[in-house]
């Protein structure tokens, strides 16, 4: 794979010529609402609107850019923005619109179609979701996502030159497929190895609007490769400087396969604004880094029990000869068998190929609504990858993931190991996650998930609800979003968690939210780190938020050598009498039913700022570097802990020595 790291886009930001002259303006007659025409340029590398790549097969070529008729930007003053539009093509541009009201500074946002209209300038975001390229070497879709901004210190007039700054990077993929007659349908770039992932949305000035995912996707339509089986695709990316060293490029095709390239770099990959990054993926040549995945598409998803009657697993199902899942069809058979009440209790499975899921709807393996529809076997992913998407927009399951219900027993604990998921997951179920929705007596080891997990209610990066389970060397990177009960690893957990990490973004609006676990019932957590920023926004309900654990809800829990590095930001309009506790490590350590609980925290640290805003409810609002709120009759055993994150409660700076939100006198020594 070849990568060119700083291919500059062409230097022109050109604005359309408008049939106006300077004689049309009176410099002394500027006022809000007056129609004016403004000249527009770029302050740096020019990359914009109409894109033309004269050498689509070149990794060191230049993308030529210019304004096109109909392009428009929003100009903000002190009130509702006004739209300025151009009427011609070219490499210089004049935009016409009505001057917004304002006093002092003005800001501009391009394109106007993506600009915030309900609020002011600070509500703007760069959003790259939903990208789709139609036709080989077609750049038309880029204009919709090539965001630019500009700032002015004073009210503009006809002599003002607005200098835009390009905010985006262009990713260029030069792909050679392994044969003729293959049509690509989707291109996905996934960051692995603990990376916080790509920005799918980034606030222009407000970090609380940021959302990150372990992968970004470009839909491909009507792409016909050339005579050499080659095509070129383009994707807009929000600049990022903290990606991992490991990446997976995958191209799903209509031949039922996904062609995958996995690569490691010597240092984290950086995407900078105003640059083109070209990647050459030659699947015809192959190599050790290239893999071929079996595609689980709509045709596979539609297979019935009758269709699958002749499909058999290789192997005998015991530990020495596990059942082999060597294709998407085998995975569908497992889905169907469990749905037909085959639990595979005590049996063993091994995944022998990567599987890329593109089906419009995913049916989890096991249905939590029905205790008979459960998977009770052991599963070895053999370090293969399940990629693509897990969509449950019409699911009837209560717990949604690759597996819906994994059920072991006290005497026969289930083992899940070496399974990696790089897939976005969404459902309308009670709980949404990547791997296991409901898990009972299951030990997970060396399992990872990368992607965007979006649940209507509860959400977990890897798992949903775990009872007497364990995590060892498990990692999530991406964005987790749910209404209530949200965790980077799991939203609810009882058991031991060891050597695990979470990175990316975690977002919630209610109840329990934790960097690793939303609600922790029992067990020990050791050597675990959270790097994800946590946001609880616009909530009108009570909640508990912690950098490691949101709510501790039982006795004799131990946290050892764990750390939070993410910033925790909470904005609440809740007016009830429930407390609002936010902590760098633990949000809430309280249960009204008893007075005897104890907690041990040793050699752990919070490095992230804790910001809590609940206006007019100061007496119910708590923030702490260690714990947000702890019942005064409980016992905390604490040694060797530290806090470097600043605590701010309702705009009051508490500093770094505010350890427990409701106990200002707590001394960790």
What report would you give on this structure?
The protein is an all-beta fold. The protein starts with a strand and ends in a 14-residue tail after the last strand. 2% of the residues lie in helices and 48% in strands. The protein has a 42-stranded mixed beta sheet that branches. It has a 7-stranded mixed beta sheet with strand order 6-5-8-11-12-2-7, with no helix packed on it. The protein has a 4-stranded mixed beta sheet with strand order 1-21-13-18, with no helix packed on it. Strand 5 (72-76) and strand 6 form a beta hairpin.
Q: Helix segment count?
A: 2
Unreliable residue stretches: 1-29, 45-50
Estimate percent helicity: under 10%
Structural class: mainly beta
Q: Any idea what the radius of gyration is?
A: 27 Å
List keywords for this structure.
single chain, 669 residues, mainly beta, 42-stranded mixed sheet, 7-stranded mixed sheet, 2% helix
Summarize the structure.
This protein has 669 residues and is mostly beta strands. The protein contains 2 helices and 58 strands. The strands form 5 sheets. The protein has a 42-stranded mixed sheet that branches. A 7-stranded mixed sheet has the order 6-5-8-11-12-2-7, with no helix packed on it. Strands 1-21-13-18 form a 4-stranded mixed sheet, with no helix packed on it.
């Amino acid at each position: 794979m070849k990568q060119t790291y700083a291919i500059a886009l062409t230097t022109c930001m050109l604005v359309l010529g408008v049939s106006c002259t300077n004689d049309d303006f009176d410099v002394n007659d500027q006022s809000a609402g007056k129609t004016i025409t403004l000249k527009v340029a770029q302050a740096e590398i020019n990359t914009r609107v109409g894109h033309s790549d004269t050498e689509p097969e070149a990794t060191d070529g230049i993308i030529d850019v210019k304004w096109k008729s109909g392009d428009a930007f929003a100009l903000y003053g002190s009130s509702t923005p006004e739209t300025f539009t151009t009427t011609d093509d070219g490499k210089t541009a004049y935009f016409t619109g009505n001057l917004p009201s304002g006093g002092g500074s003005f800001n501009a946002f391009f394109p106007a179609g993506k600009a915030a209209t309900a609020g002011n300038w600070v509500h703007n975001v760069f959003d790259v979701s939903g990208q789709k390229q139609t036709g080989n070497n077609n750049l038309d879709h880029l204009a919709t996502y090539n965001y630019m901004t500009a700032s002015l210190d004073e009210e503009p007039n006809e002599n003002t030159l607005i200098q835009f700054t390009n905010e985006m990077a262009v990713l260029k993929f030069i792909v050679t497929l392994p044969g003729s007659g293959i049509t690509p349908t989707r291109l996905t770039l996934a960051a692995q190895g603990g990376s916080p992932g790509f920005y799918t949305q980034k606030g222009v000035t407000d970090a609380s609007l940021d959302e990150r995912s372990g992968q970004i996707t470009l839909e491909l339509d009507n792409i016909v490769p050339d005579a050499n089986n080659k095509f070129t695709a383009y994707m807009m990316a929000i600049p990022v400087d903290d990606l991992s060293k490991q990446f997976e490029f995958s191209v799903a095709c209509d031949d039922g396969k996904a062609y995958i390239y996995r690569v490691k770099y010597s240092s984290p990959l950086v995407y900078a604004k105003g640059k083109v990054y070209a990647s050459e993926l030659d699947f015809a040549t192959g190599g050790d880094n290239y893999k071929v995945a079996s595609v689980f598409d709509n045709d596979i998803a539609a297979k019935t029990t009758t269709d699958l009657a002749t499909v058999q697993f290789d192997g005998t199902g015991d530990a020495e000869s596990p059942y082999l899942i060597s294709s998407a069809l085998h995975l569908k058979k497992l889905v169907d068998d469990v749905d037909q009440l085959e639990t595979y209790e005590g049996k063993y499975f091994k995944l022998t190929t990567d599987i890329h899921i593109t089906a419009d709807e995913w049916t989890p393996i096991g249905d939590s609504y029905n205790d008979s529809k459960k998977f009770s076997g052991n599963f070895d992913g053999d370090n293969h990858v399940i990629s693509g998407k897990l969509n449950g927009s019409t699911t009837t399951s209560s717990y949604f993931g690759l597996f819906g219900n994994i059920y072991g027993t006290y005497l026969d604990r289930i083992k899940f190991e070496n399974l990696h998921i790089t897939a976005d997951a969404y459902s309308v179920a009670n709980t949404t996650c990547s791997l296991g929705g409901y898990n009972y007596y299951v030990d997970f080891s060396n399992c990872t998930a990368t992607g965007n997990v979006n649940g209507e209610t509860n959400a977990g990066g890897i798992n949903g609800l775990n009872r007497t389970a364990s995590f060892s060397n498990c990692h999530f990177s991406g964005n987790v979003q749910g209404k209530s009960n949200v965790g980077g690893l799991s939203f609810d957990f009882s058991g031991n968690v060891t050597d695990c990490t979470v990175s990316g973004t975690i977002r919630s609006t209610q109840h329990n939210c934790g960097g690793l676990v939303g609600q922790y019932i029992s067990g020990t957590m050791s050597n675990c780190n959270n790097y994800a920023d946590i946001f609880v926004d616009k909530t009108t309900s009570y909640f508990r938020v912690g950098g490691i654990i949101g709510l501790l809800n039982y006795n004799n829990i131990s946290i050892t050598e764990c750390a939070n590095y993410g910033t925790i930001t909470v904005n609440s309009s809740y007016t009830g009498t429930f407390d609002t506790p936010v902590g760098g490590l633990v949000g809430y350590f309280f249960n009204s039913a008893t007075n005897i609980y104890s907690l041990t925290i040793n050699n752990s640290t919070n490095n992230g700022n804790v910001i809590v805003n609940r206006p007019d409810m100061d007496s119910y609002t708590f923030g702490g570097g260690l714990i947000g709120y702890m019942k005064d009759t409980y016992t905390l055993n604490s040694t060797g802990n530290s806090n470097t994150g600043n605590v701010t409660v309702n705009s009051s700076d508490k500093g770094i020595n505010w350890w427990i939100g409701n106990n200002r006198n707590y001394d960790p020594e």
